[in-house]
Design brief:
The complex is a heterodimer of chains A (about 375) and B (about 130). By secondary structure, chain A is an alpha/beta fold. Chain A contains nine helices and twelve strands. Chain A folds into three domains: about 100 residues, Response regulator (Rossmann fold); about 90 residues, no CATH class; about 150 residues, Heat Shock Protein 90. Chain A is elongated, with a radius of gyration of 34 Å. About 0% of the residues of chain A have low confidence. Chains A and B meet through helix 5 and helix 6 of A and helix 1 of B.
Chain lengths: ~375, ~130
Amino acid sequence: MRILLVDDEEAILRSLGEVLKDLGYEVATALDGDEALKQVAALPVDLVISDVKMPRMDGIALLSRLQAQAPDLPVILITGHGDEETAISALQEGARDYLRKPIRVKALLAAIKRVQDQQQLERLLVEERDKLVHASRLASLGTLAAGLAHEINNPATFVKGDLQLLEKSWTIIRQVLEDLPPGQVKNPQGLAFVMQEVPGLISGMQQGMERIIRLVREMSLLSRSEKQDTQRTVVDLGQCIEEALQMERHVLPPRTQVQKVQDTIQLQTRADAQQITQVLMNLLSNAAHALERMPDPTIVVRTRREADWNTIEVEDNGAGIPEEAKPRIFDPFFTTKDVGRGTGLGLSICRGIVQDHGGQIGFESHEGKGTRFWVRLPALA
Amino acid sequence: MDGAVLIVDDEEEILATLRRCMVLEGLPVETCNDPQEALAKMRQAIYPVMLTDIMMPGMSGIDLLREVRARQPLCNVIMMTAYTSMDKVVECLSAGAVDYLVKPFDDLDTVVARIREAVARVERWRQTIAPV
């Protein structure tokens, strides 16, 4: 903590300064208000202790200027013997505290400590407020996602439907065009181009629509609904793993080895089986992506019971997660995949699902070595 | 029109897509924007199949379903639902809907197949109840 001492008497600056330096504080000094203001502008100062009685600019005036220049900077004023009025108006003006001359070291230290404690509290408050803002942003993101998903669904439906109708219509048109005697065609090159390109145009649009629809579906899962509770049953986690492996088999790089290390106890939990399987599919899909072009791709899926928890781990010996990506890995829309390959929603949805079930999700990863994701779910009593 | 498929949805474009689809397949079709209009039509003609959205402003698809079950019990009602209102589907099936389709439709051919199934089912019922 750096304390700025302001007093027109050098002797006081020196003696107070020595005391504070001995106690471990950093000390800056100023002989008058102007110098004090310059110091505050130049250095990071955490606390100003200033005499009130100074020529030209007194302590109260300095306080005023400081409040304009650095409103969060706490100021303790030192008032003269018998200067009660000044002391009270100092507090009214916004001084954090006052000390009376002659200054007793204990009183000085107590005053400084009070300021430190208050600053600590303020920091905690700001932290908590930021957390709340972040949480409420996520919540409104969820609501936005749900609303958006709902709105996009209808145009997505008719565009997809119309594309299928277009495809069927093209079949009819193509037949007519093919049956045209060549002499009747004024622009044979144009026609040849159209005959060649149209099917690709239509299928391209259909694929684009599928991606949009998949995104919309993922977005609507991002917003949690309390109604999910009604689909919860007693679920055998081993079965979820089997299903997830089945569904993701085709995206694993060739020659990937999959090892399963399973607890002998059947692991059961109360959950929405489809959601848990979805989480596992997502983790396997991420592992598959990390193993692309790796020489000896291996995925290990472990399950075990740890006290009141069922733990599932999905580990790969792939590229690992880069350091700078680690803090953002669960953020919605954050992805390390190339454009068009991943929506970036997977892990944020996984975390949402796991948290909804009262569980935890986390990971450990080393670049060049591999990544291990773990999911803990409350075990059935 | 007797014997037509009646499609009810508050989204005009979806009605248009489905209408074109029915025409391509040679199935007689009528469409309307809201349930009240649908009920008015049902007073004038017999519809073997009705396709209706679940979520609509005003009268919902479920309420429409219940009205139709009361007035034309032989009408096969198929519900259309978005992914987000899947939870209402069970309620509809209990209330007498014969089938449901999720929007966006995976494949219009499936939609057509389900409608044809429903038309055939109604024919079978008619044969059983009032053989000519």
